[in-house]
């Protein structure tokens, strides 16, 4: 039984099961059982609270119980008679909820007991989840055509890949423009001399840290490494990130068109370096395809400490990603200290049930009642943030902070309301209203995607503009203190729920004053006010796609169309909602053709919070589909029709009416970005599992030259070419890249794909998605480890074998989830 946040055994044992997803097309039936396993009577009036992303339907809850939606993903269960809870007594509740549940991510979590005697709540942890074994548990409804991922399906999928000889596998990732090597080698040691000008001090320092991992060489036999800025031999405009790496037997020259180019060359050198210090003699010439190569991390839903952020920055730098989109605020948390507005972190960075009576945000995403133990509690002090800025800048990564508004803003709204109430109680009416973000008389009725009813800023208030200006002013000061330039602030702008502002007297008054008839006009005005505030600070505007779209009536029906672009050459819009079959597949191209600079952030390929596969043990959401490492690799930025696949339910979709990029629009695709939203990123290990190796596929597509798949007219030839390219990249990951990530000091916690395995001709056949990764197995029923027998050829099992257990391993001895094959199943193959 799990312990609670205090390390004690909780008084309740909890079990949860998805009974069936086939109750109807859009609901499922679940069972929740809670047993009092303590020897104490739980006083009458108790309640059990928990978080769930699936909203329960009140009318379906078992008789005698009420399941109340508190707000967001927080729910409360009570017994209607309010009686005592005796030791050993079980409460079993059946209920229906919205949509479906096919994975452990869909289960409720973060339970806590609120006692009836007024005492403090007790964290209960997460439930035991009954396995998803039957068809009605593993599929979303009877029309779900996506096969559940099991060992046999993985085996069939992995058969498309095969192990390549090491000399047929690229040495550098992302693939460079040109790389030629000979059989000769150059040897580096930790004592190697680095020759450089002072402008390259940061690059030399990072190179020295890399060399410090090598052994000491004999005196006088050290190779010289020269770092220099100059011309490199790339075709076309080289940009400031191009480099040329020349390796001779006694000298290495890293030349870049700028310090950033030199840094990129060092990253390629590090990938060529063996543990013994040898690098192959040769030459690499390289430059990126896209200028913008980004990764977004959401730390609002679950807080990630600065060390976790820095590890992500290190991993990004190794693969030449150069933009870090720092999602600092959302409904569930505000993560940056703003000295002028201390409530933002005093309240907005605390999540749980406060024992001290001080206001906080409610538990979300299973963060529990204990504020101090909550993964939802935490923020970056000014010094922390400056340290992160320094760290990123030294690695030539631009940090783009995001403050999400006007939706997804509940943490800020609650914090500023508490500030208002405190100052008003002290008689300071003017101060109380200075930064207020909500209309106290607003009676708007809405529900956000994340089930909040009060998460939208009242954009008619002049105090909202003062709030934004105050935040931006302090953020700019932090960048100045860090000595790091700030160019852009991302203002979010996504997913404002329908119904917001409709019941606000202040919003109605502003609309009447301006002669507006639609709240969309009020919203568009807010976007322009944000642009103006940022412009006064010399900053470019960035926002999600919703900030660039307007509602218009075309042909008698409402459509979303590009708004006139007024942001200038430095502004950017991030386009995410491209699910195939949604009608929004070409949104990015329409915006680029209309004049916007676009960062492709496509959910169906680049949302790394999506589960890797349809497997109940894989963490992550899947509303945009399942995003394997391959999905990011086969993403075609300038022709997303090339590999459309099917919709999220696995159904073939007729090609939509698709607006292609025009010649000028293609130049406005600034780049691509991976998104790691935080709902399920509750720890460093989870962040790293979800991020990599998908992030490396992202880097390949963002940096490497266009593979030219779209130029192959014949569909069969095109598919064969994509398969060949994927097989080489999968081998590059398995044989070179991931072993490189295993090395200290980074030793990144990337996901190891579970093996594919099945019975065939009476033997166990197994394979792996990334050839080169090792498979180890046992036949005595024990869990495999790195010292277990290595799988190399099909395995014939002796009679009486308990089970075959097999897992994927890295060079450190970490393993994937274990696959278990019962010899009894061989009889039924």
From TrEMBL:
Q: Which residues form the Chitobiase/beta-hexosaminidases N-terminal domain?
A: 10-153
Give the UniProt keywords, A-Z: Glycosidase, Hydrolase
Query: EC no.?
Result: 3.2.1.52
GO CC, sorted alphabetically, is: membrane
Instruction: List the GO molecular function terms.
Output: beta-N-acetylhexosaminidase activity; polysaccharide binding
Fetch the Gene3D superfamilies from UniProt.
2.60.40.290, Chitobiase/beta-hexosaminidase domain 2-like (3.30.379.10), Glycosidases (3.20.20.80), Immunoglobulins (2.60.40.10)
Query: What does the record give as the active site?
Result: 495
**SMART domains noted in UniProt:** CHB_HEX (SM01081)
Please give the biological process terms from Gene Ontology that the record holds. Answer: carbohydrate metabolic process; glycosaminoglycan metabolic process
Broad EC category:
hydrolase
Catalytic function, reaction form:
Hydrolysis of terminal non-reducing N-acetyl-D-hexosamine residues in N-acetyl-beta-D-hexosaminides
**Source organism's superkingdom?**
Bacteria
Q: Which family does it belong to?
A: Belongs to the glycosyl hydrolase 20 family.
Give the protein name, as stated in the record. Answer: beta-N-acetylhexosaminidase
Q: Which organism is it from?
A: Massilia polaris
């Amino acid at each position: 039984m799990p312990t609670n946040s205090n390390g004690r055994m909780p008084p309740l044992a909890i079990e949860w099961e998805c009974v069936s997803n086939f109750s109807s097309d859009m609901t499922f039936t679940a069972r929740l059982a809670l047993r009092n396993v303590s020897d104490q009577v739980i006083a009458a009036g108790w309640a059990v609270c928990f978080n769930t992303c699936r909203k329960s339907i009140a009318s379906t809850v078992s008789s005698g119980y009420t399941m109340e939606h508190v707000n967001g993903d927080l729910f409360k269960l009570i017994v209607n008679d309010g009686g005592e809870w005796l030791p050993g007594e079980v409460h079993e509740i059946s209920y229906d909820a919205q949509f479906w549940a096919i994975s452990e991510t869909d289960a409720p979590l973060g339970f806590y007991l609120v006692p009836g005697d007024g005492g403090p709540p007790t964290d209960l942890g997460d439930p035991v989840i009954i396995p998803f074994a039957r068809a009605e548990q593993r599929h979303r409804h009877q029309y779900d055509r996506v096969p559940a991922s099991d060992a046999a399906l993985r085996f069939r999928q992995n058969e498309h890949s095969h192990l390549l000889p090491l000399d047929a596998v690229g040495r550098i990732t992302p693939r460079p423009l040109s790389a030629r090597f000979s059989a000769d080698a150059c040897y580096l040691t930790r004592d190697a001399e680095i020759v450089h000008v002072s402008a390259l001090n940061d690059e030399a320092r990072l190179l020295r840290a890399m060399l410090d991992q090598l052994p000491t060489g004999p005196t006088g036999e050290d190779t010289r490494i020269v770092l220099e800025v100059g011309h490199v031999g790339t075709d076309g405009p080289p940009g400031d990130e191009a480099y040329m790496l020349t390796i001779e037997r006694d000298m290495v020259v890293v030349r870049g068109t700028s310090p950033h180019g030199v840094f990129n060359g060092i990253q390629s050198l590090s990938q060529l370096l063996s543990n013994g210090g040898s690098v192959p003699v040769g030459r690499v010439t390289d430059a990126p395809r896209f200028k913008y190569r980004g990764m977004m991390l959401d730390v609002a839903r679950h807080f990630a400490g600065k060390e976790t952020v820095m590890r992500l920055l290190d991993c990004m730098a190794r693969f030449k990603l150069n933009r870090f989109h720092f999602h600092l605020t959302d409904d569930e948390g505000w993560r940056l200290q703003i000295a002028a507005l201390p409530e933002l972190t005093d309240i907005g960075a605390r999540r749980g049930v406060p024992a001290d009576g001080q206001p906080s945000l409610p538990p979300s995403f299973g963060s529990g009642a204990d504020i101090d133990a909550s993964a939802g509690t935490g923020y970056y002090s000014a010094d922390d943030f400056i340290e992160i800025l320094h760290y990123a800048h030294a690695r030539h990564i631009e940090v783009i902070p995001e403050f999400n508004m006007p939706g997804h803003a509940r943490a800020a709204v609650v914090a500023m309301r508490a500030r208002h109430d405190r100052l008003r109680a002290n008689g300071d009416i003017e101060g109380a209203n200075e930064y207020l973000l909500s209309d106290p008389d607003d009676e708007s009725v809405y529900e956000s995607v994340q089930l909040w009813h009060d998460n939208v800023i009242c954009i008619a208030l002049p105090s909202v503009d003062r709030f934004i200006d105050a935040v931006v002013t302090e953020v700019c000061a932090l960048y100045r203190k860090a000595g790091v330039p700030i160019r852009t602030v991302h203002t979010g702008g996504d997913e404002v729920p329908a119904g917001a502002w409709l019941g606000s007297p202040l919003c109605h008054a502003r609309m009447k004053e301006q002669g507006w008839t639609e709240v969309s006009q009020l919203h568009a005005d807010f976007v322009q006010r944000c642009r103006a505030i940022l412009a006064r600070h010399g900053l470019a505007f960035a926002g999600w796609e919703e900030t660039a779209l307007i509602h218009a009536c075309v042909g008698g029906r409402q459509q979303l169309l590009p708004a006139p672009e007024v942001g200038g050459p430095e502004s950017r819009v991030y386009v995410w909602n491209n699910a195939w079959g949604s009608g929004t597949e070409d949104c990015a191209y329409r915006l680029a053709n209309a004049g916007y600079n676009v960062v492709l952030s496509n959910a169906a390929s680049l949302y790394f919070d999506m589960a890797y596969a349809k497997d109940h043990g894989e963490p992550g959401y899947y509303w945009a589909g399942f995003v394997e490492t391959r999905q990011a690799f086969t993403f075609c930025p300038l022709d997303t029709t090339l590999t459309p696949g099917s919709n999220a339910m696995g159904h073939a979709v007729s090609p939509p009416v698709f607006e292609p990029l025009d010649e000028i629009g293609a130049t406005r695709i600034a780049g691509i970005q991976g998104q790691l939203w935080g709902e399920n990123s509750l720890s460093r290990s989870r962040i790293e599992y979800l991020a990599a190796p998908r992030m490396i596929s992202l880097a390949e597509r963002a940096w490497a030259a266009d593979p030219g798949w779209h130029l192959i007219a014949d569909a069969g030839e095109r598919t064969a070419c994509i398969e060949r390219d994927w097989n080489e990249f999968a081998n590059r990951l398995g044989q070179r890249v991931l072993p490189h990530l295993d090395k200290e000091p980074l030793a990144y916690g990337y996901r190891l794909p579970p093996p594919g395995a099945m019975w065939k001709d009476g033997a166990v056949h197994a394979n792996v998605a990334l050839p080169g990764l090792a498979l180890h197995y046992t036949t005595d029923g024990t869990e495999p480890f790195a010292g277990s027998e290595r799988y190399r050829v099909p395995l014939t099992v002796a009679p009486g074998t308990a089970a075959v257990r097999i897992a994927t391993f890295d060079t450190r001895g970490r393993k994937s989830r274990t696959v278990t094959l019962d010899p009894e199943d061989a009889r039924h193959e």
